[in-house]
């Protein structure tokens, strides 16, 4: 469907933009550890979107918890190798939305309603003390929406994207133990001259929502992630994501969506 391709693209971009990504990766690791320290006990930790492990403090988590589960729809070879170095780290291949398996059928039958996400994994796991959604939320609808772009009306795909995001946020509220959310919320395109303090560029900075209209509450922590510094996507434009972190997501109230 495109999940593997997407992982390969992230890995390639990480290699090209390593320096620009570094502060974001450090902030993410710190937010994960902040959540980990607030966990009621230190039995099982679950990381959604662990992916390539760029932003996961694996060594520290492995030392803190009896078991660490790295959940992702794709586990790359470097991730498998890194995990194999820790006896208490386990990989879990999981589509956290639960809808991916139904998308091929949905593409063939656009007359039928699209599958809805209602995740239930681990809800009854009494050993689960920490769950973190790691830079995953905005990605949940990315592949599904591209997959259905030619078979379904835009409005229907837009509604599905919002539902996938809201279902994940509600799921994190229902899981046992401490839950945390780290996600990009908006992207802005900033002309490079402006960043470097040069003359204002003719293009004004543009901002767009990457959470399909879902509003998040005020974050405990927030930072900018220079996700595609010029010329990665455009010759003279830096693409900067605004990232929110909620080390204690259950204390947060989702504004009316
Ligand atoms: C931007 S990456 C997160 C950063 C990642 N931790 C890293 O080290 O680069 C988003 C991750 O979400 C995963 N993902 C996307 N959709 C998913 C789904 N439905 N279920 C589980 N994981 C998913 C991707 O495979 C990818 O690893």
Provide an overview of this structure.
This protein has 257 residues and is α/β, with parallel strands linked by helices. Strand 1, helix 3 (58-64) and strand 2 (67-72) form a beta-alpha-beta unit. The radius of gyration is 19 Å and the shape is globular. The chain has helices at 3-16, 18-37, 58-64, 77-84, 100-108, 142-147, 154-174, 192-195, and strands at 44-48, 67-72, 89-93, 128-134, 178-191, 206-209, 221-228, 237-246. It has a single domain (3-183), classed as Rossmann fold. The longest helix is centred in the middle third of the chain and has 21 residues, at 154-174. The protein contains eight helices and eight strands. The model has no long low-confidence stretch (mean pLDDT 92). Strands 1, 2, 3, 4, 5, 6, 7 and 8 form an eight-stranded mixed sheet that branches. 35% of the residues lie in helices and 23% in strands. The two termini are 29 Å apart. Bound molecules: S-adenosylmethionine (SAM). S-adenosylmethionine (SAM) is lined by residues 3, 7, 10, 49-55, 72-74, 94-97, 100, 134-136, 139-140.
């Amino acid at each position: 469907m495109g999940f593997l391709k997407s992982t390969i693209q992230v890995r390639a971009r990480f290699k090209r933009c390593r320096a620009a990504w570094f502060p974001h990766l450090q902030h993410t690791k710190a937010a994960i550890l902040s959540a980990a320290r607030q966990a009621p006990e230190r039995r099982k930790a679950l990381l959604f979107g662990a992916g390539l492990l760029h932003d996961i403090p694996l060594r520290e988590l492995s030392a803190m918890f009896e078991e660490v589960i790295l959940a992702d729809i794709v586990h790359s070879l470097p991730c498998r190798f890194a995990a194999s170095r820790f006896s208490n780290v386990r990989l879990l291949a999981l589509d956290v939305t639960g809808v991916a398996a139904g998308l091929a059928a949905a593409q063939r039958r656009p007359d039928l309603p699209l599958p809805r996400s209602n995740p239930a994994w681990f809800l009854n796991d009494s050993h689960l003390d920490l769950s973190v959604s790691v830079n995953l939320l905005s990605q949940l609808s990315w592949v599904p929406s591209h997959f259905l772009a030619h078979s379904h009306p835009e409005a229907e795909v837009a509604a599905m994207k919002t539902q996938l995001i809201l279902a994940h946020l509600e799921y994190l509220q229902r899981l046992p133990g401490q839950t945390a959310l780290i996600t990009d919320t908006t992207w802005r395109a900033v002309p490079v001259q402006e960043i470097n303090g040069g003359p204002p560029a003719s293009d004004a900075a543009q901002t767009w929502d990457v959470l399909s209209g879902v509003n998040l509450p005020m974050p405990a922590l927030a930072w900018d992630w220079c996700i595609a510094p010029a010329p990665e996507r455009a010759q003279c434009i830096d693409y900067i994501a605004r990232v929110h972190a909620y080390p204690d997501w259950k204390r947060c109230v989702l504004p009316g969506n």
